[in-house]
Amino acid sequence: MRKSVSIAVLTAALVLGMGTMAVGQRNFLAGAQQKTETTEVKIDNFSFGPGTLTVPVGTTVTWTNRDDIPHTVVSTEGAFKSKVLDTDEKFSFTFSKAGTYPYFCSIHPKMTGKVIAQ
Amino acid sequence: MAVKLKDEILHDHNDDGIDRRGFLKCMAWAGTGALCVMSGGVLKSYSLSRLPGLSPKEAMGELSFVQISDSHMGFNKPANPDVAGTLKAAVDKINALTAAPEFMLHTGDISHLSKPEEFDTVDQILQSAKPKDVFYVPGEHDVLNDDGKQFLERYGKGSKGGGWYSFDKKGAHFIGLVNVMNLKAGGLGTLGHEQLEWLEDDVKQLKHSTPIVVFAHIPLWSVYPEWGWGTEDSAQALAYLKKFGSVTVLNGHIHQTMQKVEGNVTFHTAASTAFPQPQPGKADSPGPMKVPAEQLKSVLGITDVNFVQGQHALAVVDSTLA
């Protein structure tokens, strides 16, 4: 997933508008439409909001735990891992490489989310 | 929680003390306490109001121990800003039991944030309990940040792998399992291959008539997977226990009493000593349930378990702290 998006971004940056891309470009454009300036993820009621966040490469995303139970923010693929976050505590990570970053709460693994950096 | 206090069985078609509409009734009885006696794989349940009619042997047994769970020391928000106070109330309740328990099981979430001072406070409070031996299994709140290193240093002496172990008391075999480590994204509690292999080996030599008591933090039955209230590979563990005539599984984690019977296996979850959680699916999330201060102690509690030797019966009694 991460690989395909990286390729999409690179290729798109190089040849966007040349009209030779099919699948890769469509994926990129779909991602671009969801793109938002939001760099905050809020943890409420045992869920990450927004569940999927799309940001430009280089963006720092900050998670804030607004539950009265501790949570963590842990990359499924080992890219980042917060300490345990008690109520109102925050964790930040800068996405310097393009890719899709699935993550979860290691205490409550049913809580999952995703950051797409492009 | 709107606990409806019932003290009678409404649909006891088989005359065995079990309401066939489901054992969730045991949960409804939690406000007053429920006694569930298992004998030869058959569970009989009574409300505490019927206890005077039972013989002392039926009600007490020869081995008595008590389960406490989910102390969450360090939690300080509504509905319970004083979890030390309610743990002390639980100890008072234990010390007042007529059949003095020989030991205690703590089924995890001793601490809220795995802080040394939180564990210290629980240790200190439990020192005033009459039973001096406490057997622990970790909850997910006890293994934060250090993969359980501190928990194992404090409570895991003599245990295997991630903290699992077994011991024998008066002919019953007790097995403490760990299902809060190495949790996978999107998944439930996990026992893992190494622990399952150990379990298979641990029970291999036991007679089929040996009563088995398994205790672990997250329920070993599927209470409500949507909230993570279950264990991925519990079926494999239970398969190793199939040959036994009497298996009692004691869990915590869900902060409410609940019971289920499958064949010879009785599953039971204990109340928390700290704060209640909502019934499955009855809230947006399984976060702490806020109740009026005067109701708090009626939704917290301890579980007293009695084993009658020779009858292979375990009686599980929940009492609230009210």
**What sequence of helices (H) and strands (E) makes up the elements of chain A?**
HHEEEEEEEE
For the largest beta-sheet of chain B, the strand count, sense and barrel status come to: 7 strands, mixed
The CATH architecture of the domain at 36-117 in chain A is Sandwich
What is the H level of CATH, i.e. the homologous superfamily of chain B?
Metallo-dependent phosphatases
Approximate helicity band of chain A: 10-25%
Could you tell me how far the N terminus lies from the C terminus of chain B, measured between alpha carbons in angstroms?
14 Å
Describe this structure in words.
The complex is a heterodimer of chains A (118) and B (322). Chain A is of the alpha/beta class. Chain A is built from two helices and eight strands; from the N terminus they run H-H-E-E-E-E-E-E-E-E. Chain A has a domain of 82 residues: Immunoglobulin-like (Sandwich), CATH 2.60.40.420. In chain A, a hairpin with a 7-residue loop joins strand 7 and strand 8. In chain A, helix 1 packs across helix 2. Chain A is globular, with a radius of gyration of 15 Å. Chain B has 322 residues and is of the alpha/beta class. Chain B has one domain: Purple Acid Phosphatase, chain A, domain 2. In chain B, helix 3 runs parallel beside helix 4. The N terminus of chain B is likely disordered. Chains A and B meet through strand 7 of A and loops of B.
Could you outline the blueprint of secondary structure elements for this entry?
The complex is a heterodimer of chains A (118) and B (322).
Chain A: H1 2-15, H2 23-34, E1 40-44, E2 47-49, E3 52-55, E4 60-65, E5 74-75, E6 90-94, E7 99-104, E8 112-117
Parallel strand pairs in A: 1-4, 3-8
Antiparallel strand pairs in A: 1-2, 4-6, 5-7, 7-8
Helix pairs in contact in A: 1-2
Chain B: H1 24-28, E1 34-39, E2 42-47, H2 56-59, E3 63-68, H3 83-95, E4 103-106, H4 116-126, E5 133-136, H5 149-155, E6 165-169, E7 172-176, H6 193-204, E8 212-215, H7 234-240, E9 247-251, E10 258-262, E11 265-269, E12 301-308, E13 313-320
Parallel strand pairs in B: 3-4, 4-5, 7-8, 8-9, 9-11
Antiparallel strand pairs in B: 1-2, 1-13, 3-12, 6-7, 10-11, 12-13
